[in-house]
Amino acid sequence: MRARYLFGADGAASRVAADLGLDENNRWIVGVEDVYAARRTGGEPRFTCVVDPLLAPGYLAWVVNDGDEIHVGVGGYADRFEPKEALAAFTTRVARIEPLDGAVRLERRGGSSRSEASTPASQTAAARFWATPRGRRLR
Asked: What are the backbone angles phi and psi of residue 131, rounded to the nearest 5°?
């Protein structure tokens, strides 16, 4: 198969990833997020992912508003970025997604995770706020 991009959306136990040999990873992903008190807007919970290889190389940046808290974070390969600097840069861009004017920061969380091929995503987190199996890049 030849493709510039291939998206497999068949879940954590992905047959597509297994068939392509992408179901194992030994690279560390590190991340940091700030948690803010959410302002009640009456809207539905939102989860926005931002894929930007300069901001979060090998993973993504995110904004989650669950109605109680707003989580703003970045994650990526440990050897390719500085998480705190990336979070500061992303936080300045977040206003287009989730305005934080006057929001009170409750805490900062951070950690690292290395996925295990045979372990469900929900059980692989070294940090309690995020966990994901991460496949190798297609070459």
From this structure: -160, 135
% of the chain exceeding 70 in pLDDT: 72
Q: Are 90 and 61 contacting, i.e. CB atoms less than 8 angstroms apart?
A: yes
Quote the pLDDT of residue 116: 40
Evaluate whether 94 touches 63 at the Cβ level (below 8 Å): yes
Q: Which amino acid is at 105?
A: R
Query: How far is it, in rounded angstroms, from Cα 17 to Cα 7?
Result: 10
Identify the pLDDT of residue 15.
82
CA distance 90 to 68: 21
Residues 6+ apart with CB under 8 A from 124: 113, 114, 115, 116, 131, 132, 133
pTM greater than the 0.70 cutoff: no
The residues near 76 (Cβ < 8 Å, ≥ 6 apart) are: 29, 30, 31, 55, 56, 57, 58, 59, 83, 86
